[in-house]
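User: Before I run my own analysis I want an independent prediction to cross-check against. Here's the chain; please return only the structure tokens and, at the end, one sentence I can use as a sanity check.
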Amino acid sequence: MVSADRACILISASCTTGWFDWIHGELWMCPGGLLRRSLGLAATLAPGNAQTVDPANRPTWSFTTEEVETILSSGRRNRWITWTSISHATLKRGLLDSSLHLELSDGRREKFLWLRIDGGYDLLEEALARQMPGRFEARDRPFG
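Assistant: Structure tokens:
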């Protein structure tokens, strides 16, 4: 599931799973895929619209398979999406937010949105282009 020998990189701690999900979570870019972990209401309210990650000093963590399983079972908004399960990805950078729209090979769709001030767009763009040649596109949305 998750490779414990290589660290995941925290993209944002302001990540939601869609416009109707107001609870922030962490979005981790891992060697094997993407991990989204909900942080709960208190963590959502604490930073407001402030930066949640220092782009110059991003936290890393090597999750074990057991940690990922615990995260997934602890909330319905938590996700583990392997690179190989993604059939197409669109990364968008807007004026205030960044978003990642995924089409999965089983027909499901996933969406992750986070504050643009957290950065991470360039890291994800590079990883997605490497992991999914021909199945990935990046778009700037300067006004929306």
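Sanity check: The chain has one domain: 8-141.
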